[in-house]
Structures are given as C-alpha cells and as structure tokens.
Design a protein that fits this description.
Blueprint (H helix, E strand, L loop, with lengths): L17 E2 L13 E6 L3 H16 L3 E2 L8 E6 L4 H20 L4 E6 H6 L2 H5 L5 E3 L7 H9 L4 E3 L22 E5 L1 E2 L10 H5 L3 E2 L2 H13 L4 E5 L7 E2 L4 H6 L6 E2 H9 L6 E5 L8 H9 L6 E3 L7 H6 L6 H14 L4 E8 L6 H14 L3 E6 L7 H5 L6 H24 L5 E9 L6 E6 L4 E5 L9 E9 L3 E6 L5
The protein binds S-adenosyl-L-homocysteine (SAH), iron/sulfur cluster and FE3-S4 cluster.
Length: about 475
C-alpha cells in the first residue's frame, strides 16, 4: 500500500507495464501471438481485458515476451505528461524488436491514441494501428488492414458503446478480485482533466449485464468486485427491466445506490467496492446503502483536488470547500467506520501559498486513510490549458507536493494505528509479496493486512485477523478464531 501515497502516480500505475496473458478460444488458434501491456487507471486495465476477449475470439494466443510477438498492443494513459513520456520510451524499446521482425504489428490503444489520433502515425513511425477506447470491436478489421499493407486508425468515440455483451478475459488474475466497468466516459469537464476528451461522453452500462458478470464471477470463485467508472455516483440506467422496477419497488430508473444494492444482494460473501465517487454527486442514499450491507466495503475514494474554494472553482469541480466538508461529515455520521482516500493536485494555475494551506487544513480535517497526490501537469486541449497560465514554478509545485506527501504519511500511520488491537475480517488474496510464510489480504476498509499462513485457510476465504503492529502502509496481525 506504500504505492498509494507515492507522488505523481495515476491510481493504478503500480500495475503499469504489466504484460497480459490470455489463452485463445479453443479450436480457433490462428497461430499469431499477441503481447499487450497496460498503463493508467483501472478502467484502462479493465479495457485490456475486453481487448483480450475480442482477440481471443479471433484465435490470438498471447505471449509475455514481446520479442516473440506478432502483434504488440500498448494501452496508454494521457492523464499527466509523464504518463505519456513513459509510453513513448516504451515504444522506443518496441522499435528494436520490430527492426528484428519487420512483419510485427505495433498498435497504440487507449487515451493517448484518442488524444493524438492519426498524429501518432506521423510522430511515431513504428506505430501501425491507433485505436481509441470506444473502437475495440474494430480491432480484428484494423489488424487485417495492417496485414494488407496499410496503416489503420479508428478513434471514433461513441455515445452508446459499453461493451456490455463482451465477457472480459480475466488477465493475470488471482481469481479473487475483479474489476467490473459500470460506465464509460465523463461529462464533468474538470478544467485540468483530459479524460472527457479521451473517453468521450458519459454512458452507463445496463444493470443486467453488470449483475450477470458479477454473479458469474462469484460462481467461478471470485470474492470481490470493484465497480468502475470515472464518476460512479452519476450511474443511471433509464430502461429498467420490468422485474427490477416491480419486484424491487424501484422507480423508473436504476441509480448507483440501487446498483450497489443489487450487486450486494448477489451473495453476502461477495465483497463490493467501487471507484471513483464525485463529491458533487455522492448522495446520502449511497451512504445509507453502504451502511446497510455488510459486504459493501466501508471505503470511499472521494477526490478533493484542492481545499480552497477559489481553486476548486477554477478547476470547475462544481463544489466548494464547505460542500466537500459537508459530504465528509455525512460519511462520518452515516458510516462511522468508513475509510476515506482522496486525490490532490498541487500547484494548479494561480494557486497561492495561502490557498495551498487550505489543502493542508483539509487534510488535517479529514485525516485521510491515504491519498494519491500529483503536481499539476498541463494537458493540451483542456479548459485550463486554454484559459489559465500554468504559472506555478515546478519547484513550488514540488515543494507543496513534498509537504502534503509527508503529512499524508503521518495520517496514514495514525489511521492504521487506530486499528491495532481490533479484529478485522480479511479476504485472503494470496501470499505476501515478501514471504511465502505470510498471507496478505485487505480489510473491509481497504487496509492491507499481512499475517502468518494457517494451512486451514486458503486464498479466497475470509478470516478474522487481530491487528498487532503496523507501518504507514500495512497492518500486521494474527488469525484469531472463530473465523467467519
Ligand atoms: N474521475 C476521477 C479522476 C480520474 S483521474 C475523479 O474525478 O476523481 C485521477 C486523478 O488524476 C484526478 O483525481 C486528479 O487528481 C489527477 N489528475 C487529473 N488530471 C491531472 C493533471 N492535469 N495534472 C495533475 N493531476 C491530474
Ligand atoms: Fe476528469 Fe473530472 Fe471527469 Fe474525474 S470527474 S475524469 S477529474 S473530468
Ligand atoms: Fe489515464 Fe485514460 Fe485512465 S487518461 S487515468 S487511462 S481514463
């Protein structure tokens, strides 16, 4: 969990660069090998599983060695400049592989593909295919096009595509935790953010396919699903199935609170997590639903970005400091045990020292369990890039970041120390990274717990663990009977 407070990382960059392994659908092997690598957030990672599904249907087999591949895909992120730099450096490495194997197809997928479109083909000569996040169904055709000697681009964004009918191929999975996309795109237009441009308009996936996917995961042994969207609180499905509206007593539409409840009802042993909540949209209804079901985890990621109302307005976040504090107070009131994490940007355009201090005081008020913290990185085409000068010197951005990272370390420790002596229900996810003598798993509140292996319990099972010690990132404890 130390990753969670490391500066300037996209949420899941800890998983960046992972090679993904999939098996071709039996009997369809086309003799070609695919290598796919993902960068960026959980949504991108989840999309790679959709891409894997589409290509395994076409008979592709995967390899974890790109030198051995016929097709290399890199699923990219544009959120900050350094995310793009990392991808460009990686492409240089692929260039060497391609020089040895001229028939190799190199494709750029995801947000950077959408942002740069055909320009990618001019800028990076080795790239053959550029495909945006809503065009993955077209991948087999695009590969055919490249095979016939042309370059291929499809960056059309869609208002409808949710890939609802595609069963993702679970990649590098532990068979216990899975991501499930419930919506795509974002309509919020935060002024610093490139996502609305790279992912297009917000659209919600139908609840039936979401529930089916979660139920299938549970039936095959998964014990935790994380429902994904850029703003899960604005999930809305307007054409409910008759049995949902009548049988469950809901109105005309399924909102996020309803969806959470539906997923929670699949089975009490299926843990439900979700990301990301938006302070302007998170309702008391959602909070009461979390409080009502033991298997909806007491953990909310609620990005604040800044603690100052003027900066929040420039960021176009559509809430102010008081509103955010009101939402935090509601969480503390309705779910007293809830862990809260956040995202913070330092050095946004015109941010003064005084305004930065309000971010610090917000951290002191909330005492976040953890935080992802970033220096502002101007993204071409965003509202902030058009309207405001990126006028805070890098050294000031960095100093502010260093200050809040240190403060967060302090609160991460305080929050974990408060757990010591308490018994937690932990879902065993596997062995600890450091030792095969220890298991690792997360508590309901998303804290990582490490504890000695007890052969009676296996990964995928819940155990009660008493927390005995901690670092800033991990609890350490011992299994204590009776286990649930
Ligand atoms: N949809 C999520 C955030 C997705 S991006 C939400 O609204 O909370 C993840 C985080 O990256 C953001 O919360 C923000 O803190 C950070 N981020 C986005 N654009 C950035 C930029 N231009 N510079 C620095 N950090 C940025
Ligand atoms: Fe970006 Fe804001 Fe949408 Fe999050 S809510 S993805 S920060 S525009
Ligand atoms: Fe990056 Fe795109 Fe996700 S820009 S953070 S991969 S939505």
């Amino acid at each position: 969990m130390i990753d969670l407070v490391i500066q300037d990382k996209t949420h899941d960059e800890s998983r960046q660069g992972e090679a993904l392994i999939l098996d071709p659908v039996a009997g369809k092997n086309n003799g070609r090998k695919l290598y796919i690598e993902s960068y960026g957030c959980a949504m991108n990672f989840s999309d790679s599983e959709i891409v894997a599904s589409i290509l395994s249907e076409k008979g592709f087999e995967t390899t974890s060695d790109y030198n051995n591949a016929d097709v290399i895909f890199i699923n990219t992120c544009s959120i900050r400049e350094n995310a793009e730099t990392r991808v460009r450096n990686r492409l240089k490495e692929f260039k060497v592989a391609k020089s040895k194997n001229p028939g190799m197809v190199v494709g750029v997928l995801g947000c950077m593909a959408e942002r740069l479109k055909a320009k990618f083909l001019e800028e990076e000569k080795l790239v053959d295919v550029v495909v945006g996040p809503d065009a993955y169904r077209d991948l087999p055709n695009l590969i055919d096009q490249v095979d016939s000697g042309q370059k291929a681009v499809n960056v059309l964004l869609s208002r409808e595509e949710t890939y609802a009918d595609i069963s993702p191929v679970r990649l590098n999975s532990n068979g216990i935790n899975a991501f499930v996309s419930i919506m795509r795109g974002c309509d919020n237009m935060c002024s610093f953010c490139v996502v609305p441009f790279t992912r297009g308009r917000e659209r919600s996936r139908d609840p039936f396919s979401i529930i089916k996917e979660c139920r299938d995961l549970f039936d095959t042994g998964y014990r935790e699903v994380t429902l994904l969207g850029q703003n899960v609180d604005s999930y809305k499905w307007a054409q409910p199935h008759p049995t949902l509206s009548k049988g469950e007593g809901w109105g005309e539409a399924v909102n996020f609170a309803n969806l959470l409840e539906l997923v929670a009802l699949i089975h009490p042993d299926l843990r439900v997590r979700f990301s990301t909540s938006h302070p302007k949209d998170i309702t008391d209804d959602v909070l009461y639903t979390i409080a009502k079901y033991d298997n909806i985890c007491n953990y909310i990621h609620l990005p604040v970005q800044s603690g100052n109302s003027r900066v929040l307005e420039l960021m176009n976040r559509t809430y102010d400091r008081e509103w955010y504090i009101n939402r935090i107070d509601a969480i503390r009131r309705i779910i007293p045990e809830c862990a809260i994490s956040t995202d913070i940007i330092t050095g946004f355009c015109t941010e003064t020292d005084e305004e930065h201090k309000e971010t610090v005081s917000m951290m002191e008020y909330v005492q976040y369990d953890f935080a992802y913290m970033f220096m502002y990185s101007e993204r071409p085409g965003t509202l902030a890039a058009k309207r405001y000068a990126d006028d805070i010197p890098e050294a000031v951005k960095a100093a502010r970041l260093t200050e809040i990272v240190a403060l967060q370390q302090k609160y991460s420790l305080v929050r974990l120390q408060a757990q010591i002596g308490k018994v937690q229900k932990v879902l065993i996810e596997g062995f600890s990274k450091k030792s095969k003598n220890d298991y690792a798993g997360r508590t309901d509140q998303n804290a990582m717990m490490v504890f000695p292996v007890d052969e009676r319990y296996k990964p995928g099972q819940y155990v009660n663990v008493i927390a005995e010690r901690c670092t800033t990132a991990t609890l350490m404890g011992t299994i204590c009977p009776p286990t649930p």
